[in-house]
Amino acid sequence: MFAATFVVAGAATACSSIRQPVKGNAKVRAAALGARRAVASRGEIRALASERHTSSRASTSRLGTRRASPVTPRALDAAQPFDFEAKQRQQVEKKRSLKIGIVGFGNFGQFLAKRFIKNGHDVIATSRSDYGSIAASLNVGYYRDPDDFCEMHPDVVIFCTSILSTEATINAFPMQRLRRNTLVADVLSVKQFPKQLFLQRMPDNFDILCLHPMFGPDSGKGSWKDLPLVYDKVRVGEEKSRRERVERLLRVFEDEGCRMVEMSCEEHDIQAASSQFITHTVGRMLGTMELTETTINTKGYESLLSLVNNTSNDSFDLYYGLFMYNKNATAELSRLELAFSQVKAQLFDRLHTLIRDDIFDEAAQPAGARGGGGAPSSAEAEERTFKDRLIDQVNVGGSLGGSTDEKGGDKSEREEGAASR
Ligand code: NAP
């Protein structure tokens, strides 16, 4: 460290001496050599010495016979292709790391921070709670105070707050301390709501990108290969640097193998209500049932257990947010409830029909036939009758559900109705 300082200082002195008016060529040569020495490595110094030895002869020799210099040139004054600089800048820009600021350093914020760091970006974070030591262990700069966080001027600010708290967090966020053209993004599991919030509350010169990684710390624990990332470039300025900044952020997901899905926030919410919200609902229902491993797990049952596993660690706030802040969720919940009722009705319809038929058959039989006299009156006979009817119904109907009272027409109408919903 000290040696390096010394060399640089030496170089500075030598360079300043070059700039001073010097009398005579010998002095100029000596100063130039001194300057080059100051920046040269040991090997290069040896080469310089030999160069010095031959330089007097070279100066008197004919011009045009160029000697190969053993010194590696450090700067070129020669003309470069016209687009050389632009291309170099492009390459540097491509690789340049982003300073990514995460607001809300909970479960998901930390999960994302790890991948951003792995992909060579700098990460800073702020959150309501104190995550100082966790952040330090992840190599993330942590600022409890959002003002301090904003004054670090991150290129991108990503809101990883709970759906329920996002509006209040944005309202209290000191946006004015950020750089004028900051890119703001969010990863909320609902999309129309943050899009509207951003458009209403963010300054006009901020870029806006809505993201939804459709996986979490459990489902995305290992590889992100083929896991979907939904994104909507809600507002991105025309400048090339702004568009590139968006691409650089998206490239993290792309490089991790995500399936990149560009989709409007509105379309996302329609599709997510019938996929994600239903998945979480069923996962929570099964979780409430406390399913456990059995010694005869089928593949299907394994999938159910893994569904419970993937959803049970998510906070209830997250689940409630999926319901409350997606206007399509209520209709999906009703559809789920209706579907469950229909399946249950199919089961009970059949059972009720059999019992009812049994009751009426019994009532229609003459008293003697119901156990009096010498007729077969045992419970065994009644049971056989019931079983026989059951078998008959399976053979005739061929499928579950439907009452013998209602016959096929009504049943198929019901099924058609269910399919069209
Ligand atoms: P979450 O419970 O939805 O959110 C936790 C985060 O919200 C924490 O950073 C927490 O800050 C912050 N927060 C909660 N209440 C707050 C309040 N009143 N004021 C300020 N901050 C508050 O759990 P999460 O799993 O970490 O999800 C974060 C976001 O990522 C959500 O919007 C979620 O929809 C989205 N997301 C999650 C997943 C997933 O699988 N988990 C997947 C995709 C997207 P403190 O910890 O400092 O209190």
Write the layout of secondary structure elements.
Layout: H1 2-19, H2 25-39, H3 42-60, H4 84-95, E1 99-103, H5 107-118, E2 122-126, H6 132-138, E3 141-142, H7 146-151, E4 156-159, H8 163-172, E5 183-186, H9 192-201, E6 207-213, E7 228-235, H10 240-255, E8 259-262, H11 265-288, H12 299-312, H13 316-324, H14 329-364, H15 379-397, H16 407-420
Parallel strand pairs: 1-2, 1-4, 2-3, 4-5, 5-6, 7-8
Antiparallel strand pairs: 6-7
The structure holds NADP nicotinamide-adenine-dinucleotide phosphate.
The site of NADP nicotinamide-adenine-dinucleotide phosphate has 25 residues, from helix 5, helix 8 and helix 13.
Uncertain runs are 1-24, 37-41, 58-64, 399-421
Oligomer: single chain
Largest sheet: 8 strands, mixed
State the end-to-end CA separation: 74 Å
Average predicted confidence as pLDDT: 80
Bound molecules: NADP nicotinamide-adenine-dinucleotide phosphate
Total number of beta strands? 8
Order of helices and strands: HHHHEHEHEHEHEHEEHEHHHHHH
Helix count, DSSP H or I runs of 4 or more residues = 16
Instruction: Name the structural class.
Output: alpha/beta
* Side-by-side strand order of the widest sheet: 3-2-1-4-5-6-7-8
Give the percentage of residues in beta strands.
5-15%
Helix content class = 55-70%
* Radius of gyration from CA coordinates: 38 Å
Shape: elongated
